[in-house]
Design goal:
- By secondary structure, the protein is α/β, with parallel strands linked by helices.
- Helix content is 36%, strand content 21%.
- It has 10 helices and 12 strands.
- It has helices at residues 29-40, 57-62, 90-95, 114-124, 140-152, 168-176, 211-217, 232-239, 247-263, 270-284; strands spanning 15-21, 45-51, 68-73, 87-88, 100-104, 107-111, 132-136, 156-161, 180-185, 197-200, 220-223, 244-246.
- The strands form 2 sheets. Strands 2-1-3-5-6-4 form a 6-stranded mixed β-sheet. Strands 9-8-7-10-11-12 form a 6-stranded parallel β-sheet, with helices on both faces.
- The chain starts with 14 loop residues before the first strand and ends with a helix.
Length: 285
C-alpha cells in the first residue's frame, strides 16, 4: 500500500469505480478492472468509462456518493487532479500528476500508479537496470518513465522532444529522482544512440521514423503504444532480435496497482487481468 493511502474498503456491498478522461470510449481499463473483480469475487463491484475533460473533473468528484471506491484518470486529468484531492502521495507530487483517486470515508486520496506500471513492465522483461536511456517525447508519460528509470537504477537519460523549451517539467521530474537529464530536439535523437533502452512515449506512428536507427543500434525498446500493435518501431527491433516491451504491459501493471489501492487487497489476479486484456485487444484487431 502506498504511503498515506487509505486502508481496506469496509462496509456495504455495491461499490463503483470508473476511468475518466477525454477521449475515453476505447479505454481498456474497464476490461482489466472488471476481470479483477470477477476473479476476486467482488460480484457487486462495477467499473465504467466516463468522458470527462479538465473543466468537468471537480463537478464529477463533488457528485460522487459513498458507494464510490475510486477513479482511474487518464489524459488530460492527471495534473489538475492534484488540486482536487484531500491527500496525495509523495510520488504523485514528485511526478506532477495523479492517475488514481481513492475514495474512502468521505475523503479523496491521489496517487500515481503509472511509475509502478512502467517499472514492473520493464523488470518483467528483464530490463531491471538499464544504464542509459533515450526517451522520445516530453509529456506526462515521459515524466513517469523518467521516474521509473531512476527507480530501476538508471542514472543518465536523454530526453528528445519537438520543442525543448516545453520539456522543462518532464526533465525536472527526472532530476528530482536523481537522473542526469539532457534535453535535445526530437530529430536529433538518432545521434544519441546507442543507448541501452529507448522509451517511446510518442503517439500513434510518430516514432516510425526512428525504427531503423534504433533497431540497428541494438537497443531494447519500451513503446507505450498498445494498439495497433506492433508499431513499426517495435517490429523493427523484434526483427533485429532486440527486447521489446509494449504499452499493454504498462497499462496492465498500473491497473493492478489501482485495484489494490481501491479495494485494499493484495491478492490482485494479474494473470486473469492479462488474459482479459489480451483477448480484448485481439478482438479489436
Amino acid at each position: 500500500m502506498a504511503e498515506g493511502a487509505p486502508g481496506p474498503v469496509t462496509g456495504g456491498t455495491g461499490r463503483r469505480a470508473a476511468v475518466l478522461g477525454s477521449p475515453i470510449a476505447h479505454s481498456l481499463s474497464p476490461v482489466l478492472h472488471r476481470a479483477a473483480y470477477a476473479a476476486m469475487g467482488l460480484d457487486h463491484w462495477s467499473y465504467d468509462a466516463v468522458e470527462c475533460g479538465e473543466d468537468g473533473l471537480a463537478a464529477v468528484l463533488d457528485g460522487l456518493g459513498p458507494e464510490w471506491a475510486g477513479l482511474s484518470l487518464t489524459m488530460p486529468l492527471k495534473r489538475v487532479a492534484l488540486g482536487l484531492v484531500d491527500t496525495v502521495s509523495d510520488l504523485a507530487v514528485k511526478v506532477g500528476g495523479a492517475n488514481t483517486i481513492v475514495l474512502r470515508d468521505g475523503r479523496r486520496h491521489g496517487d500515481n500508479t503509472d511509475v509502478y506500471g512502467i517499472e514492473t513492465a520493464l523488470a518483467e522483461a528483464g530490463l531491471k537496470a538499464p544504464s542509459t536511456a533515450l526517451v522520445l517525447g516530453g509529456g506526462a508519460t515521459a515524466a513517469s518513465a523518467l521516474a521509473a528509470l531512476a527507480g530501476l537504477g538508471t542514472r543518465e537519460a536523454v530526453l528528445a522532444v519537438r520543442t525543448p523549451e516545453r520539456a522543462a517539467a518532464a526533465a525536472g521530474v527526472g532530476e528530482r529522482f536523481g537522473l542526469a537529464v539532457r534535453v535535445v530536439k526530437l530529430d536529433e535523437a538518432p545521434a544519441h544512440l546507442p543507448a541501452e533502452l529507448v522509451v517511446s512515449t510518442l503517439p500513434g506512428r510518430a516514432a516510425d521514423a526512428f525504427a531503423a536507427p534504433v533497431a540497428e543500434s541494438g537497443a531494447a525498446v519500451f513503446d507505450v503504444v498498445y494498439a495497433p500493435w506492433p508499431t513499426a518501431l517495435a517490429a523493427a527491433v523484434e526483427r533485429a532480435g532486440g527486447t521489446v516491451v509494449g504499452g499493454f504491459a504498462m497499462l496492465l501493471h498500473q491497473a493492478v496497482r489501482q485495484v489494490a489501492l481501491m479495494t485494499g487487497r493484495d491478492d490482485v489476479p494479474v494473470e486473469a487481468m492479462r488474459a482479459a486484456g489480451e483477448a480484448e485487444l485481439a478482438r479489436r484487431a
